[in-house]
Amino acid sequence: MIKQEFLIYTSNYDTNNSRITRKINHSIRVMEYSKKIAQYLNLKEEEIKLATLIGLLHDIARFEQMRIYKTFSDLKSIDHGDLGAEILSNDNFIRKFIDDDKYDEIIKTAIRNHNKFKIEDGLDNNKLLFSKIIRDADKLDIFFEAVTIFWNTEEEINLIKNSELSDEYFKTFSNKKPIKNKANPTKLDGVISLIAFIFDINFEYSLNEIKENDFINKILNKFSYKNDDIEKKIEIIRNISNEYLNKR
To answer: Using CA atoms, how far apart are residues 184 and 166, in angstroms rounded to an integer?
Structure first.
């Protein structure tokens, strides 16, 4: 039922636009990842359904964002997590997906926090739990998309091949910390900041998915690099990543 309501909503947008269809498919996969994480955590059936719903709705604002601003870049438009919570509140739109209002604040809080650099402070245990679930689920599908969809054309690959790796990004990664993107990252910086998502993963299930699908190696193996210095740094990043995943 919730998936059908979601598809009815998204049918109002230009589904001939590949970026729109990609976000529809992303939302459905994140819904499934959220469900699997909740099941792995042995949550109650009602909580599993809640995690599933949050997964489906986490990017509900992407469609309005594209319609109004013609971009998925929050830096160039609007924070899509905040807008998503607002859309669900407007005209009680959230009731299309869930009858009971007792979970409304958990849903909206998780959606507001799914795309932030870090989860806001001061959340109660339930809001924190579901914020962590959706953040992991979203990242898992971004890894999947990085392997299957992103950086697949010759032009994209050459842009990364000929790109620099910022010292700041390399140092932050070497310290095993998530990377907060600067205003104008290089193309290679963007790849490395995505891989650094591993340092902001909350659950064993998610780390196992990244490891078992070999996401890190598959992403890094897409590219060659412009010089030996960058090649060496990429191998350091690869080794840090695999060691981190294997120790968790």
So the answer is: 11
